[in-house]
Each structure stands twice: as structure tokens, then as C-alpha cells.
Amino acid sequence: MNNTHGGKPHVLVLGGGSVGLTTAADLRKTLGTEVAITIVDSRPYMTYQPFLPEVGAGSIDPRNVLAPLRKILAGTKVVTGSVTKIRSAENVVVVDTEDDVQLEISYDYLVVGLGAVPRLLPIPGLAEAAIGFKWVEEAVAVRDRILANLAEAASTKDPKIRKRLLTFTFVGGGFAGGEAIAETEDMVRDALRYYPDLHASDIRFVLIDAAPFIFPELTEDQRAYVLNQLRERGIEVKLETFLNSVEDGVVKTSDGDEFETDLLVWNAGVKPSPILLEEGASDLPVITERGPLMGKVDTLADLRVNGADGPIDNVFAAGDCAAVPDLASGEGKFCPPNAQHAVRQGKRIADNIARSVQGRPLVDYYHKNLGTMATLGMYKGVGRLHVADKEFDLRGLPAWAAARAYHVYAMPTFGRKVAVVADWVTNMISRRDIIGIPEQSSPRAAFELAANTSSKPK
Ligand SMILES: Cc1cc2nc3c(=O)[nH]c(=O)nc-3n(C[C@H](O)[C@H](O)[C@H](O)COP(=O)(O)OP(=O)(O)OC[C@H]3O[C@@H](n4cnc5c(N)ncnc54)[C@H](O)[C@@H]3O)c2cc1C
């Protein structure tokens, strides 16, 4: 037992996302002050990622999709820093903080919920030109860029510049990418009413995907429905198409197309937190075979990590960074990376740690998928609900309403739930805001300009 916590077992949680926040909050509820808990994340808040497409579309204020760890997890030590080493053989984790201090944190129980990062491909120009859509700052930047471009395009007389400003390219048509393009296109359609100089036909939204379909989690019928709906709205969906390059603002695709774009959003897959695979950074066992599980922590059904000599008793992993057997789907299946599983796995880990502390047997993770739902803009959606062994297809308004209702239920904290609903009500009454502030990323630019011009003698 770790002696630095008054003889109490010390639970160290890596990552304050869906897994980490849920584990820490539930553990505190179950065991009260019987355990000491530390949570480490490079951000001081949890991001409710399913709401990011609505942030990108201006339907939800960015801060309202963030849950502040220190406020929610009273009594838990929150460390803001990057996990750089996991030495499970010694029960130690190394964390780099902002001031370049390396903290060595020892633990009795370790929970790994480090999530995933975008999976990039070696495409010329991609790393320099593209933006992801996984964090709130990215969703905000995408919205700001699109809205600012509308304002600039409406004021330029140069048709070439105008075309570039109004061409928005998204790569990857999974749930995150599909929702992102559908929601932002809907925002532009809404904003155009304030731009008499722009017409819907001036706007080009392009969705590129290497697969023969988008929204792979849906049934064939539903995929066809979404594809039709996006195409009817003027979104150009290029299937079985690769992005070949994006250099000097020019996109080249494998179907021979070539066009200028001012925005390229990359949503073509994620991979587990890279420190898990990095040489010398972590000694946790990870899946090394090529495929969707590569780099994920090898995890057993009770969410303990599967070591070379059997379960590592005090180390648990879950969420997007873990290969968790999906018992509800059958032998050999693994849980897909989504918040629905991550939150429930966090709860199972909290309960299993409580069981371990109390000397009771652990319980396997079992969750039957509740379904999948996506919003595609205001009053538009698609999804499948699983209720009592029956499946229901939802489309249009019912799917949109069900998706919003579910995510408000799942959004952490009562205050944030209320704030999200208040954003929606405000937008319904006074319409979505159409201001884009891309200068947010360089807030000192105006001051520096003033300093440069006023300090020069005339
Ligand atoms: C745009 C978008 C839409 C989505 N929509 C849905 C949806 O509709 N339904 C659904 O179920 N799922 C959805 N998902 C997926 C869902 O959000 C994730 O599966 C879920 O958040 C995974 O939880 P996690 O705890 O594993 O990872 P995360 O929630 O990503 O948390 C990981 C945490 O670890 C931290 N971290 C990572 N590395 C380090 C490090 N080295 N040091 C310190 N901290 C670190 C990160 O800062 C982060 O806070 C969506 C995802 C995106 C991006």
C-alpha cells in the first residue's frame, strides 16, 4: 500500500475524459474518502465530444460542452499535465507539468483512459494544412473560419478568391466527420439569409471518403438515406476517393479532381494515445497487430489489463485507448470506440476497484448497445434505437430530437445540461449567431499592430 495517502489506497486515473471523469466520480460516490484519488489530464476539463459538431455549427456555446474537473471532482487531486511515462512494473507514472517539472506519481490502482488522437496518413501537405475535429478549440476554429470566410467572400469581387473562400473540404465520413459537415453546412445555409450577395450555389462543401459508404455504423437503408439527404442539400460526397495531396491550398483527389480550399477538416480515423506505443514510454501490453485495435491496451472483460503472465491486478484500462472484449456482441468482438461504452466502462472500473478494495470478486463489463444517433443539422437526424431486443429506425425530426435528448442526459453536470438547453432555446428564438472570430487564435495581433505603428517616429 502507498504510504503517502494516510494509508488509504491511492487510485491514479490517467485522462479526464469520458472514462476518467466517470471512474473518479463513481469511485468517490461508492467509497467516499476510503480511497485517495488523483486524476491527470493535459486539459483541466473534460470535453463532451458528441456535442462538438453542434459547437462547430454555433448551436452550443463552446464552454457548455466542457466539464471542469476541479469543480466536479471535489476531494480529488487534479493534476494538469501530460503523462509521459507509465512504469507499471514499479507502480509509477511520470507526468510533465507546464513548468517543465517531472512528477513521479506512485499508485495502488491505475486507471488508463487516455483516449485517442487523429490518425494521419502520409499525404503531402496534410499535416501542415488540415485541422482535426476532436477538441473544442478545433470545432470553434472551424466555425470561425467558415463564418469569417462568408463575410470575406461577400465583399470580394475576385471570383477565384471567392471560390476558394467558399470551398470547405472534410475528409472522413464516419459519425464524427459526417455530423461535422452536415451540421456546419446547415449553419451556412442558415447564415446565407444575411448575405444577399451570396447564393447557395456559390458554396461548395466536399466530403471525401475512401470507403464505398459513409456512416458505417448505420444499416444499408439508412446510409442510403443519409447520402441522399446530404447530396440533396448540395454536399458533394466523393466515395471510394482518396485525398492525394493538399499543397498550397490545392486539394487533389484520386478521382482526378483538383480545387482550391480554405479549410480542410481531417476526420479519417483515430488511433490510441501515442504514448502507449512509443518506445520506452509505457510498459503496458498493447496490441501490436495491424488493424483497428493496434496500439490499444490489451484488456480483459473485467477491464483489468492483460499482462504477459495473466491479469495485472491493480491496472485497469477502458475507452478509446483500450481493446475491451464486447461480451454482448459475441466471441472475438471488441467494443467500438464511443462515449456510450467509455462512460459505462468507467462505471464498471469504479465498481471493480471498490470490489478489489473490499476483497470481493470482480465483474465483467457487459453492455448491450443502445443504438446510434446523429444530428445532421437543425431538425435533421438519423439513427437506430435498440429497445428490448427490437431495433427502431429513426429519421428526420424524431432522430434529431432523440439524439439531442440523449446527449443532454449524458452531458456531465446539471448546470451544463441546463446551459446547453438554454443555448438551443436562445437560438430558436433569435437564430444562430453568424459572427466568426478567427482572430481569437492571435488575440495580440491588433495590439502589436498599434504598437508598431505608434512607436515609429514620423
Ligand atoms: C466529433 C466527435 C463526435 C462524437 N460523437 C459521438 C456520439 O455521438 N456518440 C458516442 O457515443 N461517441 C461519440 N464520439 C466518441 C466519444 O466522444 C469517445 O469515444 C469518448 O470520448 C472516448 O472516451 P475516452 O475517455 O476513452 O477518451 P476521451 O474522452 O477522449 O478522454 C481522454 C482524455 O485523456 C487526455 N489525455 C490524452 N493523452 C494524455 C496524456 N499523455 N497526458 C495527459 N492527458 C492525456 C485527453 O486530454 C482527454 O481528456 C464522438 C467523438 C468525436 C470526436
TrEMBL record:
It comes from the Bacteria. One of its GO terms (biological process) is aerobic electron transport chain. The keyword Oxidoreductase applies. The keyword Endoplasmic reticulum does not apply. InterPro entries: FAD/NAD-bd_sf, FAD/NAD-binding_dom, NADH-Q_oxidoreductase. Its cofactor is FAD. GO terms for molecular function: NAD(P)H dehydrogenase (quinone) activity. Keywords: FAD, Flavoprotein, Oxidoreductase. Transmembrane segments: none annotated. Belongs to the NADH dehydrogenase family. This is NADH dehydrogenase.
